[in-house]
What we know:
- By secondary structure, the chain is mostly helical.
- The chain is about 75% helix and about 0% strand.
- It has helices at about 5-20, 25, 40-45, 50-65, 70-90, 95-110, 110-120, 125-155, 155-160.
- α5 packs antiparallel against α7 (about 110-120).
- The mean pLDDT is about 95.
Amino acid sequence: MNIRTIVGNGIVAALYIAVSAVVQPFGFTNVQFRVSEMFNHLIVFNKNYFYGIVLGVFLTNLFFSPLIAYDLVFGVAHSVISLLITIVAGRYIKSIIGLMAVNTVVFTFNMFIIAIELNLAFKLPFFFTWLTTAAGELAVLAAGIPIMYAINKRVKFGQMI
């Protein structure tokens, strides 16, 4: 990795943490409107953002989660698995909007991982928790598509890292 990639990933991780801190009361419940999840769309523009996103998730869960140990395992696993699926899908889907839509579906569907975590930690009902966490993820990532797309027109995410 070159310096530009390392610094870019550090900035992404820091932004993920900062945005998560602002919405912290809504980021760790069974609904989870973690606005910082919009940064997951960066993977569509350049797969090198993988490291910054995962580091941001890890540190956010370490600093803010009431379920530190669970979130460090399940939350990070959710992000890693979902990002890797999107990277593979990117080999076949060349449309930015299309890949962002796939990314949204992948992260939303994979919220079953978080539902398992909350079931283990709090004995919350699995399917209802999957539904509520998935709804929050879908809302944030769907809203993030036009936002990240518009920002990319100015910033050119693919060239920054």
